[in-house]
Design goal:
Helix content is 46%, strand content 18%. With 325 residues, it is of the alpha/beta class. The protein has a six-stranded mixed sheet, sandwiched between helices. Helix 1 packs antiparallel against helix 13 (299-319), helix 3 packs across helix 11 (264-279) and helix 5 (97-104) packs across helix 13 (299-319).
Length: 325
Amino acid sequence: MVLRRLIAAWLLTFGLGLGWGAASAQVYPDRLIKVIVPFVPGSPVDAAARVITQYIQTRLGQNMVIENKPGGGTTIGLKAVMAAPADGYTLLFIGPNLVYTPVLYPSMNFDPFRSLVPVASVVSYSHVMVVAPAVPARTVEELVAHIKANPGKVTFGYGLATTPHILSETFRQVTGADFAGIPYRGGEQARADLLGGRIDINMAPTANLLALIQDGRARPLAFTGPKRSPDLPDVPTMTESGLPEVGYNPDVWLGFLAPIGTSDAVVRRINAAVAEALASAEMKAALSKLGFDSMVTTPEQFGAFIANELRKWPPLLQAAGLKAE
């Protein structure tokens, strides 16, 4: 019942925009489009945004510029988009953090259904767990044993309030491993410290770690996806490693949202450009290099997907005892 009400609210928002939306879409876009990415430059989300906008802007006939607004577990970027005019010239590019925020930052009183309009999903992807070369573990089972033999001493670095953060706490809960969680402003800083020997464990998309794995600066233990990564065919999945709970299908999804009140016609104009871009062979090849799978939806389908995510993630975050504030 709650899910139906949430979806209906978004559908009503689309309908209310029809009166002036058709006229506005005839001239949209006629200037630069700003895309707010609430993550640091070089992060997986940033990389995806920069690739997809290159292909979308050619179809929209206007340039799109990325503006990184990291910090506060993505709340800084969220607030920037919520405060922007609902004209289609400021978009949010985000993933599961959208549904983490109500749980991790309750004082913000954030409700994605009342603040934003779903525009288009873009990609999904999973993560690979790696350890520093100095860690004496070559399997997940050996890592758990090592952590338990050294309670509180092994370090797991991640971006604050990101999916690796959630996965790390799920890993802790499922295995009973007492490691020290080290939050960073973004995942790139965590990986820098992994290379510097200051943390022991990290999780990231395959593309972000592949070069480090190939030259021996990081050792892969498991992949969180439902099947092995084609880039790491010898690395078992978490399910194969005995931990099916540590990994979701997908771990991460990414997409565009707009300020509440953005017209239906403008939303559909952007959605059509995204769908056309994702259908191109060039776009598919570019995403594949980053380890991403395309995820094409209508605005309504994307809204229904987010509604389901809002039912799935909060209990997991609460069970793991996660609090960002």
